[in-house]
Every structure is written in C-alpha cells, then in structure tokens.
Amino acid sequence: MTEQPITWLTQDAHDRLHAELADRMGPMRQEITKRIESAREEGDLRENGGYHAAREEQGKNEARVRQLKQLLEHARVGAPESEADEVAPGKVVTVRFPAFDEEETFLLGSREEAAHASIEVYSPTSPLGAAVLGKKVGDSATYALANGKEMAVDVVKVEAYGG
Q: Does the model's pTM come out above 0.70?
C-alpha cells in the first residue's frame, strides 16, 4: 500500500477545510436528502430531472466528504522544520530563471491553500516545487518541462508565509 504524503496546511486553511467538512456532512447532506425525498414524491423517477440532479449532487458531495476526510487525516498544520533560508512547504520562494532573466515568487503549498492565497501556489510535488524543495538561497536546480526540455532555476529568496 502506498503511503499517503503529508499535506502541510496553514491554520486558516485547516480550519476552513474542517468547517467545509462539517457543513457537507451536516446541513448540506440533509438539504440534498430532502430534495431527493421531495423529488421521489413527484412520481416516475426515470423522467424526473430534479431527482437525478439531486442524486448527482449527492454523489459529488459524498466524494468531496471522502476527499476532505483523507486530506485532513494526513494534514499537518504549520510547516515542516527547516532552516530560515531553506525551501520547504509553507514558505514563499522567489526564483530566478537565468534563461529569461526573470523572477517568480510563489508559495510552496497545497492546492487547498491556492483557493484562498493572494499569491501563486505551487505544490511540492510539481516539477518546479520538487526541484527547489530542500534547496537554500543561492542554490540552483533544474526540472523537466512538459516538452521534455530542462529549465534551470536559481533560488533567490525564501521567507515565511504570512497567510
């Protein structure tokens, strides 16, 4: 069995996901169930669009409940232990692309953070994220682009994420 990777979340993201899970398991689930029951009372289910729409919504809700449970089960709040200038989940990283003499700043974090972050978010498992993970300011790395070519990147700055 493959071990589930740890997802690092800010306290804000963790609290938001717990609130979403509680809503989806409580009020939202009850509302969907009421709509299904109401649509059943209308008669022939084969031609009942409201029934089928509610059942589809129920399936999507239950899938998200499973996803949230699994995510929260393996999530850690905060960031892993790392040195101040070391790239790690939960840090804001500025990199320079020597080939273009351009810089980019992003948060190394989960996609759950991306929905509410005011900064671009890259996953630690993305090609760029994996290439710089564990590097320190001044280090260089390369990663494969979608077209198979290599891209060089220099770590310019690493700082804590303020949320």
A: no
